[in-house]
Amino acid sequence: MDDLFFILSKLIWTFARPDHLLLLLLTLSVLMLGWKSPRRKARNCALGLLGLIWVVALFPIGEGLLHVLEQRFPVPQQLEQTPLAGIIVLGGAEKLAAMRYHQRAEFSEAAERVMAVPELAQRFPDLPIIYSCGSGWLLEPDIKGADYTKLYFDAMGLEGRVLYERESRNTFENAALSVPLAGERIQGTWLLVTSAFHMPRSVGVFQQQGWTVLPYPVDYRGKPLDWGVNFNLSGNLENLTMAAREWVGLLAYRLSGKTLTLVPGAPIDE
Q: Span 106-127, mean pLDDT?
């Protein structure tokens, strides 16, 4: 069942993500213009699509959608006074194609997830650290993000300090497959490190799997939506795609019973 969920989620998202959806609609509009069907409808469709592209280009809608998620959990204060059983860090910053080609650690904009580990290891020298990251690739599952990230951590002097979970393919499996590494310490509170916009889904999944977690959000991307013009098609589309992926993920996890609420966390006050 988990395999089916993983495969379907990848296939559906391939066509549902905003950038691909815009391309598909644009292609359909062009094809309609060449058909014998009423060209007025085709022109209207093309004009509507063009207007939608301009809206995306001018307004940072994605940043606003990300910001809503990022405000669900604040950065914890006075961590040293908090009794913790361990630290678990979720992967997702790995650039798997570049890693495979260069045979070295390469990271994306989400690198703050990885960067948090040396700092936390120094602050909490007695706590175990789990790094959970397998492969989210549907066609090349043998490329494991944790294997390459280990090279970076070893170079940072953390060899033997981090436990690696390397089989997970999504957030649900991050939680489920890390349980054996936590052992009896799973009864305590674990510091959960991931991107701020990904934190609500992560907390919901981990709690459903029996973990007690204290969110430690990093990698902030959003800001309050003020409808100010920001002419940046590529940047706005990237953020919108990222936000759409997370909101769709929240819905899919809720409908499949992997979380108990649609958006776990404190009430949204935006």
A: 95
The predicted-structure confidence for 22-54, as pLDDT tens digits, reads as follows 888 878 777 776 665 566 776 777 778 888 888
Determine the number of helices (DSSP H) and then strands (DSSP E) in the chain: 10, 5
Segment (H or E) for 54: helix 39-58
Cβ-count burial 156-195 (b if 16+ within 10 Å, e if not): eebeeebbbbbbbbbbbbbbbbbeebbeeebeeebbbbbb
Q: Is the pLDDT of residue 6 over 80?
A: no
Q: Measure the CA–CA gap between 121 and 116, rounded to whole angstroms.
A: 9
- How would residue 71 be classed by pLDDT, with cut points 50, 70 and 90? very high
Q: What residue has token string 């936590």?
A: 182
What residues are paired with 216 via a beta bridge? 193
Q: Write down the pTM of the prediction.
A: 0.88
Q: Order of strands across the sheet with 129-132?
A: 162-165, 129-132, 86-90, 189-195, 212-218
The pLDDT tens digits of the residues spanning 206-260 come to 999 999 999 999 999 999 887 778 888 889 999 999 999 999 999 999 999 999 9
Is the Cβ–Cβ distance between 107 and 58 less than 8 Å? no
Within a 10 A sphere around the Cβ of 225, how many other Cβ atoms?
Answer: 17
List the one residue out of 223, 237, 221 whose CA is nearest residue 57: 237
DSSP H stretches of helix in 95-158: 96-102, 112-123, 145-155
**CA separation for the pair 260, 75 (Å, rounded):** 23
Domains of the chain with bracketed CATH:
2-67+229-247 (no CATH), 78-219 (3.40.50.620)
